[in-house]
Design goal:
The protein has 225 residues and is α/β, with parallel strands linked by helices. It is built from nine helices and six strands, in the order H-H-E-H-E-H-E-H-H-E-H-H-E-H-E. The radius of gyration is 29 Å and the shape is elongated. The termini are far apart.
Length: 225
């Protein structure tokens, strides 16, 4: 016959097995197992894509849209490439002669810069002068786009030159199509022409949510330029 002590032990064990703490631990274990299963599926999908992506080629990247950060993103790519020992060059369209933090750093590590130098078109108000400056900058870009020793080129704000018809679209497309096969190119600027977007391998559109300038905050050195 079961003693009272034995009955008490069994009742205690039963109450322990059904305790809130045990239920919580069980739920947490189930959540951990489900998370692991999901992540295993994600890993399998990523591994499959990596296995399929074996082509090596020069990539044409377009950073467009009305948001802030397109040129900054392009310079980030240039900095990364230089950090890996790649040879890089930059052609800046529209930019004037004001200080450029990226240029101050990158020229010191061997990055060649070609700057259009006339500034914003609404400041110059001289189409002939802007067109001549754009053509000169584009000639420098064409030379770089034929040079297989240059691993990566940033064509900063090029989209405006095409939109304003300072540089012929077909001339740009031809140079991009016929560049060295392993040469990467980054194009930045708003309203990128659809023909360049169609040619590109990667296109990112930067859209504004808020901008300090719209609230009366001026462009500040070290942050905006």
């Amino acid at each position: 016959m079961m003693t009272d002590i034995t009955k008490g032990e069994n009742n205690h064990q039963s109450s322990t097995d059904n305790s809130p703490e045990r239920d919580h631990d069980s739920r947490e274990q189930d959540k951990a197992e489900r998370h692991k299963a999901r992540q295993q599926k994600v890993k399998a999908a990523v591994d499959a894509k990596i296995a399929q992506a074996q082509t090596e080629k020069g990539v044409l990247l377009v950073l467009t849209g009305n948001g802030k950060g397109k040129s900054t993103g392009g310079f980030g790519n240039i900095t990364r490439a230089v950090g890996h020992g790649k040879k890089a060059a930059v052609v800046q369209f529209i930019k004037g002669n004001w200080p450029c933090g990226e240029r101050a750093v990158l020229e010191k590590v061997g990055v060649a810069f070609h700057v259009m130098g006339t500034g914003f078109t609404w400041e110059t108000q001289d189409k002939a002068k802007d067109t001549a400056a754009a053509q000169s900058a584009w000639e420098a870009a064409e030379t770089l786009l034929k040079d297989d020793s240059i691993d990566i080129i940033l064509l900063d704000e090029l989209t405006y030159m095409v939109s304003y018809h300072y540089i012929e679209l077909e001339r740009v497309l031809e140079a991009l199509k016929n560049r060295p096969p392993m040469q990467h190119v980054i194009i930045t600027g708003r309203a990128c022409h659809r023909a360049i977007i169609e040619l590109a391998d990667t296109v990112s559109e930067v859209q504004p949510i808020k901008h300090a300038f719209e609230a009366g905050v001026k462009a500040q050195i070290g942050f905006d330029y």
